[in-house]
């Protein structure tokens, strides 16, 4: 039995637009972010892709994205373990203060999470979801760094997924899960070129 996982990033937020560090803190979807989620939803509808179950981070930006994509009247699960990296005292500061990648344990020195702890948290969360839904198609809406850490954990990839595979807002990484192992299948990106900033 194969479980198919669509691991999607939320739509554009106010902090994304303002180039602010956004991890454990939250900000609302912008009009563009809402439209990105609608484009993702429309793609799934056109392709006949349906989800048996859906999960989101407890952050508003993730749950709001999920409700647009999955349906506002459908039940879904919200998990704190799917939240973004906690950047400690760097939260809501300008992105130009970010250290160069890889971050490693930098943020742990400022009341944030160590990279190894963050990677373990997100990987365990997705593993538990996959184990609980054999032979189903699952939508998980989370965050950019969280999804990148899961991808690196399961593929040993150490580059930038945003630069190398074009991973942006409302993109989704697709994985097959079988016999306790994840296999990366593809990335689903959308064309937002006609959307205003």
UniProtKB/TrEMBL annotation:
GO terms for molecular function: phosphatase activity. Gene3D superfamilies: Phosphoglycerate mutase-like. PROSITE patterns: PG_MUTASE. Substrate binds at residues 9-16, 61. GO terms for cellular component: cytoplasm. InterPro entries: His_Pase_superF_clade-1, His_PPase_superfam, PG/BPGM_mutase_AS, PGM_Phosphatase. It holds the Pfam family His_Phos_1. This is Phosphoglycerate mutase. It comes from Aerococcus urinaeequi.
């Amino acid at each position: 039995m194969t479980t198919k996982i669509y691991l999607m990033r939320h739509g554009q937020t106010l902090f994304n637009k303002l180039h602010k560090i956004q991890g454990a803190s939250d900000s609302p979807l912008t009009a563009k972010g809402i439209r990105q989620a609608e484009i993702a939803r429309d793609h799934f509808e056109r392709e006949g892709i349906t989800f048996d179950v859906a999960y989101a981070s407890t952050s508003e930006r993730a749950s709001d994205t999920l409700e647009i994509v999955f349906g506002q009247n459908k039940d879904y699960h919200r998990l704190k373990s799917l939240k973004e990296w906690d950047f400690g005292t760097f939260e809501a500061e300008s992105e130009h203060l970010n250290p160069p990648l890889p971050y490693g344990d930098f943020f742990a020195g400022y009341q944030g999470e160590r990279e190894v702890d963050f990677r373990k948290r997100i990987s365990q969360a997705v593993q538990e979801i996959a184990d609980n839904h054999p032979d189903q198609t699952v939508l998980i809406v989370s965050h950019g760094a969280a999804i990148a850490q899961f991808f690196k954990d399961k593929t040993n990839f150490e580059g930038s997924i945003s630069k190398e595979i074009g991973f942006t807002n409302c993109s989704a990484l697709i994985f097959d899960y079988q016999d306790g192992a994840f296999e990366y299948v593809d990335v689903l990106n959308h064309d937002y070129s006609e959307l205003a900033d």
